[in-house]
Amino acid sequence: MKIRVGICGYGNLGRGVEAGIAHNSDMELVAVFTRRRPTESLKIKANVPVVHVDDVADWVGKIDVMILCGGSAKDLPEQTPELAKLFNTVDSFDTHARIPEYFAAVDRVARASGTVSIVSVGWDPGLFSLMRLYMSAVLPSGATHTFWGKGVSQGHSDAVRRVDGVADAVQYTIPIESAVERVKRGEVAEFTAREKHERVCFVVAEAGADLARIEREIKEMPHYFADYDTTVNFISTEELRANHGKLMHGGRVIHSGETSVGNAQVVEFSLELGSNPEFTASVLLAYARAAARLAGSGEVGARTVFDVPPALVAQASWEDLVRELL
């Protein structure tokens, strides 16, 4: 029997989930949920119902896992605890500093409701988090550094779009190469956030908006921009569409340490992504499989990628994994 999937939110990430289901033969899309007026403003590719989120409770028992595709700044902190009352869920909440409190809020609801919610799934947090754990466990005498980009950050772009007076925006995260090179040489160095990355925003402002206020609010935004050198460029809608429509991204986790004096070890895990949202969606789908399996075995409560056995995310059986991959 296939895992029945629902999508809540149909932006770039939601469309990525829809596309990704075609590559997961053990899954089927059941419905897409939106805050928009479904029959008039939302066109999807799949031949499934488009439903307003106000009617989501009508789908209890018809969906095995709800994949939440809203933004971390405003959507997920409100949506996930509410939807975890009704469904097993997977989300990509990516405000790193707030993950502990977010996890606790979702865990309380999921345990009380008898559901499973896997939170903060994607490539960072997510796959990169696992790499940081493994690398630091294997080489405890050392330092781990994460570099993002150059690429478009979905979460940061969404945060800019939420600023009053912003019609549309794209945000690029750019690693500072001198810091990357120092780490790759095996230096056990400490960096501030500002020394590792810069952030560049391209913003389409609404007519008559206060550009100075918008720029100030972006640069002072905690958890997103306040700790970085941030450049805000105001451009037209046409320029944004023409020059900033690609959603490429990537990054690397580098750990450097010693196993004995003079024996330096450097470990690196990297990604180069042609589509950030489609890759993130693919990770969400793998963990949706795990959520369905955990729920099927009677588990309840919130989980992170640290808590999910690797075999649960794979389509293949344990026997096939051992034979082919181990």
List the helices and strands and how they pair.
Blueprint: E1 3-8, H1 12-21, E2 27-34, H2 38-41, E3 50-52, E4 65-68, H3 75-83, E5 88-91, H4 99-113, E6 116-118, H5 127-138, E7 142-148, E8 151-152, H6 154-161, E9 166-175, H7 177-184, H8 193-196, E10 197-205, H9 211-219, E11 229-234, H10 237-243, E12 249-260, E13 263-273, H11 276-296, E14 301-303, H12 318-324
Walk me through the structure.
It is a single chain. The chain has twelve helices and 14 strands. Helix 3 (75-83) runs parallel beside helix 4. It has helices spanning 12-21, 38-41, 75-83, 99-113, 127-138, 154-161, 177-184, 193-196, 211-219, 237-243, 276-296, 318-324; strands spanning 3-8, 27-34, 50-52, 65-68, 88-91, 116-118, 142-148, 151-152, 166-175, 197-205, 229-234, 249-260, 263-273, 301-303. The two termini are 27 Å apart. Helix 2 (38-41) links the parallel strand 2 (27-34) and strand 3. With 326 residues, the chain is of the alpha/beta class. It is globular, with a radius of gyration of 21 Å. The strands form three sheets. A seven-stranded parallel sheet has the order 3-2-1-4-5-6-14, with helices on both faces.
Short description:
With 326 residues, the protein is an alpha/beta fold.
Quickly count the helices: 12
Question: In what order do the strands lie side by side in the largest sheet?
Answer: 3-2-1-4-5-6-14
Mean pLDDT: 95
* Radius of gyration over all CA atoms, rounded: 21 Å
Proportion in helices = 25-40%
Number of strand segments: 14
| H/E element sequence | EHEHEEHEHEHEEHEHHEHEHEEHEH
Any low-confidence stretches, pLDDT <50, length ≥5?
none
Major beta-sheet overview: 7 strands, parallel
Shape: globular
Q: How many angstroms does the end-to-end distance come to?
A: 27 Å
Question: Which secondary-structure class do the elements indicate?
Answer: alpha/beta
Provide the β-strand percentage band: 25-35%
